[in-house]
Amino acid sequence: MTNPAWSVQEIEQLYDLPLHELILQAGQVHAKNFPDGDIELATLLSIKTGGCPEDCSYCPQAARYHTGIEATKLMELDEVLEAAKAAKAAGSNRFCMGAAWREPKDRDIEKVAQMIREVKALGLETCATLGMLAENQANSLSAAGLDYYNHNLDSSEDFYGTIIQTRSYQDRLDTLQHVRNSGMSVCCGGIVGMGESRRQRAGLIGRLANLTPYPESVPINHLVPVPGTPLAEQPGLDPFEFVRTIAVARITMPKARVRLSAGRQELGRAVQAMCFMAGANSIFYGDKLLTTNNPEAVADLALLQELGLKIKSNVTTEVCV
Description:
There is one protein chain. This protein is of the alpha/beta class. 41% of the residues lie in helices and 16% in strands. It is built from eleven helices and twelve strands. It has helices at residues 8-15, 19-33, 77-89, 106-120, 135-143, 157-163, 169-182, 198-209, 239-252, 264-277, 297-306, and strands spanning 38-48, 94-99, 125-129, 148-150, 185-187, 190-192, 217-222, 257-260, 282-284, 288-289, 292-293, 310-311. Helix 1 (8-15) packs across helix 8 (198-209) and helix 2 packs parallel to helix 9 (239-252). It is globular.
């Protein structure tokens, strides 16, 4: 899953194409690499909410912001399994567990590893996002059978300091390398609509596409401004620019699952349909994404059916234990 290196200028040239030409090109790349054309359904559960010491300007879980999010302890195993069973029954292929930590402690890793083993025994793909990982922690999660680890770059490096001061860009790259070295697959994307320029959006896509190899899963989030955060009043991104970002991600990372993540509810049905035309083939599915609302499962299924899109099967021939 490697590409020739993409320059920011080359990616900007893709962004500058007439929208119908860009979508057509992205659709052709998608059809070549995903001939089944199926949509992956992923469910995200917050297993530990709030109280994060980071200062990410977009995040309602940062302890320093007054967003009404109350900090919770790590969920019990049986609660997580109940949610995972419900997700599978609703059609999800992948179950993602998120915890609002800057970096987990080793004792936290042990508890999450048990969750991973039990969720995999249900026949679901597993993903976790727990903050920065040390090398030994990545190895422990991999040994437990974790399929994907999510750690987003969030933005281009030259915009990053505008939104985050408590964790460096290199910290993020180091965690991604630990994940790769452990043998797990990488889930890594970013957030658009935080006030960045198109060139900086191109820089984010370029950095992702030039990872060796590029991520197997690429979540593209549309900022959801949350009252109490520094980006609460940030104007929304033009919806067509979001579609362009999906298309450019598809062209530059042809074999990745490009996921519509946070902000889908605000985009509306028509823009989501354009995103699928532009090569998106994965969605976060369910009522919530950590702490922000997400289109309800019934509405998601109705939209996919109306568009004639096939859902990736979550029936496995082998149950992992």
